[in-house]
Write a structure and sequence with these properties.
The chain is an all-alpha fold. Helix content is 94%, strand content 0%. The protein has three helices and no strands. Helix 1 crosses helix 2. The termini are far apart.
């Protein structure tokens, strides 16, 4: 147990040293990247919490929405196809009668 605590302390020290080196080497760019990473972590945690509380997975929800949109588009296309076929039939009938 003591070895684990010592190892954990050593790892934290190394991380702090690396953080300082990166900050010195890259300055503002490093700070901006760290900030963006923190924002991404917050967004992930929020999204994860929302998904767990609503008992849905965002990807599955998006897939369902997309499937519904495609189904509606398919229905609309089928109706338009029927209208065009009827107009074409009427046009051809009129052309045959006119001859």
């Amino acid at each position: 147990m003591i070895l684990t605590v010592d190892l954990l302390g050593l790892i934290r020290t190394r991380i702090a040293e690396l953080d300082q080196k990166l900050a010195l080497r890259h300055g503002d760019r490093y700070d901006k990247i760290k900030h963006q990473l923190d924002e991404a972590k917050k967004w992930y945690q929020t999204t994860k919490s929302e998904a767990q509380s609503s008992n849905t997975i965002p990807l599955e929800q998006k897939q369902e929405e997309t499937t519904d949109q495609f189904a509606k588009a398919g229905s609309k296309t089928a109706r338009q196809e029927d209208v065009i076929k009827q107009k074409l039939k009427n046009f051809l009938k009129n052309q045959i009668k006119a001859k």
